[in-house]
Amino acid sequence: MPESFVPAMRLALAEARRAFEEGEIPIGAVVLDASGEVIGTGRNDRERSADPTGHAEIVAMRRAASSLGEWRLSGCTLVVTLEPCTMCAGASVQARLDRVVYGAVDPKAGAVGSLWDVVRDRRLNHRPEVVAEVLADECGALLIEFFTDRRVG
Predict the structure, then answer these.
(1) Name one GO molecular function term (predicted).
(2) pLDDT tens readout for residues 7-18
(3) Is residue 152 predicted with pLDDT exceeding 70?
(4) CA–CA separation, 99 vs 84, rounded Å?
(5) Domain-located, residue 25
(6) How many separate domains does the chain show?
(7) Given its phi and psi angles, is residue 56 left (phi above 0), alpha (psi -120 to 50 degrees) or beta?
(8) Residue 40 parent element (H or E)
(9) In whole angstroms, what is the distance from residue 54 CA to residue 30 CA?
(10) Taking the CB of residue 85, how many other CB atoms lie within 10 A of it?
(11) Is residue 153 part of a domain?
């Protein structure tokens, strides 16, 4: 099944590259509806928007909800280049997403299995399926390039 998410992850990577070009941490996300159509895209925009919630996942979920005309994203899949943080993992649960697919693991702040496992916490009322490490090397390489450039520049 992870292979089936490669095309969507490539779209998320394109969003991440746009974030990189804009000086944002290069994380991108897309939301797919139940038929696999893209209904929301997003990339990090915290610096540009001066919004602490400007994470790629939140931006993509807001656009998907707007596209559907409702906050419930039941039947939908979030595809993101980096393992979601606690805020984004919590938003995934609150949005009732069916699935969270991510690329690179985030051992420092990941909340979908690494540091925490918010989405699979049995105390919560909803638990999305998780598909991990789709194109992980490619997703991670973009982040390494960004932070290497920042240290050198």
Answers:
(1) zinc ion binding
(2) 999 999 999 999
(3) no
(4) 12
(5) yes
(6) 1
(7) alpha
(8) strand 38-43
(9) 14
(10) 21
(11) no
Q: Is the pLDDT of residue 1 over 80?
A: no
Residue 85 is labelled as binding a ligand: yes
Scan for tokens 């099944």, then name that residue. 1
Model pLDDT for residues 36-60, shown as the tens digit of each residue: 999 999 999 999 999 999 999 999 9
Q: How many Cα atoms within 13 Å fall on the side-chain side of residue 57?
A: 27
Establish whether 57 is a catalytic residue. yes
Q: Is residue 105 part of a domain?
A: yes
| Global pTM exceeds 0.85 | yes
CA atoms within 13 A on the CB side of 51: 11
> What is the arithmetic mean of pLDDT over 98-116?
97
User: Please, what is the Cα angle at 75 between 3 and 128, to 5 degrees?
Assistant: 70
**Does 139 show up as a binding residue in the annotation?**
no
126 is known to lie in a ligand binding site: no
Catalytic: which of 21, 22, 47, 57? 57
Task: Read off the pLDDT band of 149 (50, 70, 90).
Answer: confident
Q: CA neighbours within 13 Å on the CB side: how many for 40?
A: 29
Enclosing H/E stretch for 28: strand 28-32
Expressed as residue numbers, the domain containing 128 is 2-144
CATH classification of the domain holding 37: 3.40.140.10
16-38 average pLDDT score: 97
